[in-house]
């Protein structure tokens, strides 16, 4: 999106593993990306946890396919993710999305207040993240495939459309 907000990591993310990583700790640590038009891949290679470098390096990646499929690959996870401290930074893995609305602030008429609405989150069970493992997310059909609210509401999708009072439309 075009808005960077301090709540971004709490509400909008694609995170194979979010933690307090320090890519500058080692000359061998890198965060690289590749986009070939069909798949966009980000790889965290030999990154260390800030202040816990003795635990070893982590190597993992996220691959976003143009079909909507997302794959998280874990090559090197030296310690159980449940043992990573969340005191300095959240520790999580999964997907989350939200939208922001600018509302007039009641106390200052000429200003606007940002309100973030998280509408979907998929959290991975971090106890299952291990070296040489992967997780694949496959998209389900959505209302975005339809050209009108009527065709969406009457479709045979596997979820229930619902009215969003904020946007004044079906989701």
From TrEMBL:
The keyword Cell division does not apply. Its main location: membrane. The keyword Transmembrane applies. GO terms for cellular component: membrane. It comes from the Eukaryota. InterPro entries: PLXDC (IPR031152). It is a single-pass type I membrane protein. It is found in: Membrane. Belongs to the plexin family. This is PLDX1 protein. The lineage of its organism: Eukaryota, Metazoa, Chordata, Craniata, Vertebrata. The gene is Plxdc1.
